Amino acid sequence: MNLQSEKSQVNKSAQELFEFLTNTANFKALLPNDLTGFEVSEDSFKFSMSGMPAIRMIYTEKIPYSKVQLKAAGDAFPIFLTCSIQEISDVKCEAQLFFDGDINMMMAMMIKKPLQNLLDTLAEKMSLL
Question: Diameter of the chain by CA atoms?
Fold first, then answer.
């Protein structure tokens, strides 16, 4: 299953957004308000929201100022969250989120809308940074 957010304009340079996204503690500010748990380590964060199991995300790729990719820890759900960053100016950039997951059709039907809402919320909150 592949999903993507709309492109968001962020009032930060590409470097500033990249540095924000590569600090695991900062994801708490981007996640939806119905967050029921959030734990941070140096290279990962774990979050839970009502109606969803807890998910630990770990960094798999960090390309300075252009891409940050995370993967769900464990093999139960092989899912990736990628943020593509495009510099617009010294004080503005554009970001877009992509979700890629190897999820069976039944599960995909159940989680597609909540996942799209999660991507949209992350993108919207990035635009408010």
Answer: 45
